[in-house]
Amino acid sequence: MASDLDFSPPEVPEPTFLENLLRYGLFLGAIFQLICVLAIIVPIPKSHEADAEPSEPRSAEVTRKPKATLPSANKRPKKETKKKR
């Protein structure tokens, strides 16, 4: 009765090239996502060059005049038609 039981591991076929490609592609995608999430969470200190000249862009923003909104050329006025009875 003990000789009837087979405890050998089941035969698993070798993974194909496409299965390996998918497997490692998923690993690379997961690593890329972790890097992206860490880039959002971990603050990166700005360099001294960027801190030296922040006043120039701000003054340019203050001197800018707000532009009046012009109606776009694509929009046509609605045509008023009489209701037919």
Automatic annotation (TrEMBL):
* Bias (Basic residues) ranges: 75-85
Asked whether the keyword Membrane is assigned, the reply is yes
UniProt keywords, alphabetically: Membrane, Transmembrane, Transmembrane helix
Protein's UniProt name:
Protein MANBAL
Ranges for the region named Disordered are: 48-85
According to its UniProt record, which protein family does this protein belong to?
Belongs to the UPF0239 family.
Which parts of the chain span the membrane according to its record? 24-44
- The source's domain of life comes to Eukaryota
Please state where this protein is localized: Membrane
Q: What is its main location?
A: membrane
User: Topology in the membrane?
Assistant: Single-pass membrane protein
Record lineage: Eukaryota, Metazoa, Chordata, Craniata, Vertebrata
**PANTHER family membership:** MANNOSIDASE, BETA A, LYSOSOMAL-LIKE, MANBAL PROTEIN, PROTEIN MANBAL
Tell me a GO cellular component. Answer: membrane
> Pfam families, per this entry?
UPF0239 (PF06783)
**What ranges does the record list as Basic and acidic residues composition bias?**
48-64
What is the protein's species of origin? Tupaia chinensis
